[in-house]
């Protein structure tokens, strides 16, 4: 349902739904575009020192280069005929302000006759259409005495990079060079790995990663990426808001590997927490996602994978990675508010069976679910009655009473009371061998956006609700 308030003297116009903006909120620029043979720059010899297999690249005018902050950003360029191309910034050019030096391949998309030499263009910064996580590369010759590190494969331009050595509280700002590397401050004699790395994008997204070793001129795979659809949508599934305190613990990496009370393996994601026993609810809290807000209004999204038996009601024990998004480790504990939200997942739910599961006895848990799991029932083929499975304190549902062989039907009920029905066709060989499901809980995300559009002849205000979140 939406409310429309209209003051209008012209015909009605259509308005696009605000689903995950692809464009950053920057202005459009106008300038002249030239072209160059980009092969040397694509080999990593441009000003940004970024290699590229894709010839859709560009050199940015020095006036817009921003001490290399534009390196790796994607821009949509529109030519005089209305054709557009998206290119990645890997170099700097001697162009006038707002000018671009396009690869010959991208220039031809805008103007097939390269004899023109230069053309008028408009351009804007857009979200890079990339897959995977941010990666990192140290400068050749880097060591604990001197190093530079750059981020590669990021959706948005990187505005800031900080590091913190393990078990210390202070984040250290790395100094950006005009070659797109962040350098160790000369005021500090040595910095040894391992250390945590924190990146902030130009539009405020934060990614925290771990660097285990200073590997000279080698690609290091990261575990995070800037932003997701949830930042533009309200994905609350429980209207209750809880208040308490957040503490932190250093054993989060071990818990995230599957040794926490929930026995959930997060695949290296350390944005996790342990739930107070008062709200544990016989392990129903396992796997739920929580939006936690700190004393300064900062927010972090975590997944519950462990139990904090000694925490008072309302408290959460966070990983150090999550805690430092809200406060400083030296604070020890901070005031928080939190609520349960949808998990951002890709694809359908999955089933993880305990080792040794067979028709005589089996136990399994649900993985990759959008909402917490309330109950599970199964129905053997040829029977009409659903059998409720008891939930165990370690987040598995157990069947040890009857002899039940595959295949069988399964009914999964979420805390939103939505019911999914699926089929189990085999007993996986190990806990690492997940059984793929064919269903997923429906998203309940609603848009946070309010569109206000102004025109000389009319004003339209649209309040959108029930806009599906594409996650």
Automatic annotation (TrEMBL):
The record's listing under InterPro entries reads: Expansin/allergen_DPBB_dom (IPR007112), Expansin_CBD_sf (IPR036749), Expansin_CellWall (IPR051477), Expansin_EXLX1-like (IPR049818), RlpA-like_sf (IPR036908)
Q: Which parts of the sequence belong to the Expansin-like EG45 domain?
A: 254-348
- Which residue positions does the secretion signal occupy? 1-16
Which keywords are on file for this protein? Signal
Please indicate which superkingdom the organism of origin belongs to: Eukaryota
Q: What is this protein called?
A: Expansin-yoaj protein-like protein 170
Record the organism.
Saccoglossus kowalevskii (Acorn worm)
Taxonomy, top ranks, is: Eukaryota, Metazoa, Hemichordata, Enteropneusta, Harrimaniidae
């Amino acid at each position: 349902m939406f409310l429309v308030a209209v003051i209008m003297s012209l015909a009605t116009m259509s308005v696009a739904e605000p689903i995950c903006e692809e464009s950053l909120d920057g202005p459009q620029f106008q300038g002249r575009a030239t072209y160059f043979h980009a092969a040397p720059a694509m080999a990593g010899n441009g000003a940004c020192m970024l290699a590229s297999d894709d010839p859709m690249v560009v050199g940015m005018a020095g006036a817009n280069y921003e001490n290399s902050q534009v390196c790796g950003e994607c821009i949509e360029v529109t030519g005089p005929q209305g054709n557009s191309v998206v290119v990645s910034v890997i170099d700097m050019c001697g162009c006038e302000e707002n000018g671009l030096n396009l690869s010959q391949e991208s220039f031809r998309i805008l103007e097939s006759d390269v004899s023109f030499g230069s053309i008028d263009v408009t351009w804007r910064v857009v979200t890079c259409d990339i897959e995977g996580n941010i990666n990192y590369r140290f400068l050749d010759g880097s060591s604990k005495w001197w190093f530079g590190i750059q981020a590669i494969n990021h959706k948005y331009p990187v505005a800031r990079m900080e590091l913190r050595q393990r078990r210390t509280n202070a984040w250290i700002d790395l100094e950006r060079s005009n070659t797109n590397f962040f350098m160790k401050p000369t005021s500090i004699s040595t910095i040894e790995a391992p250390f945590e790395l924190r990146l902030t994008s130009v539009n405020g997204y934060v990614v925290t990663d771990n660097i285990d070793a200073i590997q000279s001129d080698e690609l290091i795979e990261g575990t995070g990426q800037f932003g997701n659809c949830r930042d533009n949508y309200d994905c609350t599934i429980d209207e209750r808001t809880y208040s308490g305190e957040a503490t932190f613990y250093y054993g989060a990496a071990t818990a995230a590997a599957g040794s926490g009370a929930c026995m959930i393996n997060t695949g290296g994601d350390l944005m996790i927490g342990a739930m107070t026993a008062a709200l544990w609810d016989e392990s129903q809290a396992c796997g739920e996602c929580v939006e936690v807000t700190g004393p300064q209004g900062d927010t972090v999204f975590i997944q519950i994978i462990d139990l904090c038996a000694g925490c008072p009601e309302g408290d959460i024990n966070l990983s150090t990675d999550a805690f430092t998004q809200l406060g400083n480790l030296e604070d020890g504990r901070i005031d928080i508010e939190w609520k349960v939200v949808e998990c951002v997942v890709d694809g359908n739910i999955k089933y993880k069976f305990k080792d040794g599961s067979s028709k005589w006895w089996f136990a399994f848990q649900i993985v990759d679910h959008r909402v917490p799991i309330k109950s599970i029932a199964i129905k053997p083929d040829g029977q009409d009655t659903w059998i409720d499975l008891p939930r165990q304190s370690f987040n598995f549902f157990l069947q040890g009473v009857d002899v039940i062989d595959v295949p069988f039907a399964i009914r999964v009920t979420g805390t939103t009371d939505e019911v999914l029905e699926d089929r189990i066709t085999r007993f996986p060989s190990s806990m690492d061998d997940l059984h793929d499901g064919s269903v997923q809980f429906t998203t309940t995300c609603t848009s946070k956006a309010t569109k206000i559009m102004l025109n000389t002849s009319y004003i339209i205000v649209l309040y959108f609700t029930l806009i599906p979140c594409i996650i």
